[in-house]
Write a structure and sequence with these properties.
alpha/beta; Rossmann fold; eight-stranded mixed beta sheet; two-stranded antiparallel ribbon; 8 helices; 14 strands; globular; binds ligand PAZ; DNA/pantothenate metabolism flavoprotein C-terminal domain-containing protein; CoaB-like_sf; DNA/pantothenate-metab_flavo_C
Length: about 280
């Protein structure tokens, strides 16, 4: 994991080199919640960081400088498709040969955009929260040119330091866990960390009936610009843009496009870029 002071100085330099660009600050992947101070067990979630990694690629293609704050070992832009690389390698004499479709282009893109993406990694909920604050502090002066894209699946519950056992919990009797409600960092992001940025949060549900009411309630509560609502099972083909004072906007990827390998993030980032442009025009 990158040390926070390295993040600060590296990010400072990165932003100086990209001072004429819009900045997309993406969070991606799930947070881990330790159950013991000397951690053996933890709570985690399903997120592999696909949404964040694919979105980063489209933000880069759209001209943004990208800060990619991701769960350690979750998917990263361009390399994300090649997790099974070893299965496709062949040995020809002294050479290792790989014929995977798209690999050469992905390596090229990775190089092309390397000066325009800055990586920050996290693992636990605590690390997520402190890195989020640090990054926000560094990008604050970009004002409305910053688009915050909170795609990470952040735990809503955690074990406080006071109630967390120091050592591995014994397994000779049933275990009752007391989980506390995690602070809602979006509140700090919107009101104190980057009050002039365009803030997009995601709302994930499994019950369709709760999706839009919960997204609308989050907007009402935190007063940020946009909630992108998605259902776990259909998240790769359907999302809903929910804004205050506007009708909900459904974005879908047709089954044909999906079968051809298209990704809904392209549509999401297209629309989001327009909304960000309008926001900048009205806030400068
Ligand atoms: O990581 P992934 O691509 O599998 O999933 C993306 C997602 C469902 C985590 C994201 O779209 C999302 O909804 N994030 C916010 C989750 C929440 O805290 O409500």
């Amino acid at each position: 994991m990158t040390l926070l002071k390295d993040v600060e100085s590296g990010l400072h330099e990165f932003l100086k080199n990209n001072s004429t660009r819009r900045v997309a600050f993406i969070t991606s992947g799930g947070t881990q919640v330790p159950l013991e101070k000397n951690m053996v067990r933890f709570i985690d979630n399903f997120s592999m960081g696909t949404r964040g990694a694919v979105s980063a690629e489209f933000f880069l293609r759209g001209g943004y400088a990208v800060i990619f704050m991701h769960r350690e070992d979750s998917l990263k832009p361009f390399s994300r498709r090649f997790n099974n690389l070893f299965d496709s390698l062949e040995i020809a004499g002294d050479e290792v040969v790989c014929q995977l479709p798209g690999l050469k282009e992905a390596v090229q893109d990775h190089r092309t955009y390397s000066d325009r993406i800055f990586y920050v990694s996290f693992k636990t909920l605590d690390q997520y929260m402190s890195s989020l604050e640090k990054v926000c502090n560094e990008v604050k002066h970009f004002g409305s040119l910053v688009l915050v894209y909170l795609a990470a699946a952040v735990s809503d519950f955690y074990v406080t330091q006071e109630t967390m056992p120091t050592h591995k919990m014994s397994s000779d009797k049933d275990l009752s866990l007391r989980l506390s409600l995690a602070p809602k960092v979006i509140e700090r992001v919107v009101n104190s960390y980057v009050p002039h940025a365009f803030v997009t949060s995601f709302k994930l549900e499994t019950d369709e009936g709760k999706l839009i009411p919960k997204a609308a309630a989050a907007l009402e509560k935190y007063k940020h610009q946009l909630v992108i609502a998605n259902i776990l099972e259909s998240r790769k083909r359907r999302v809903v843009f929910v804004q205050r004072n506007a009708d909900a906007e459904v974005i879908t990827l047709s089954p044909e496009k999906l079968a051809q390998g298209a990704e809904i993030e392209e549509l999401i980032i297209d629309r989001l870029t327009q909304l960000h442009e309008d926001f900048i025009a009205h806030n400068n």
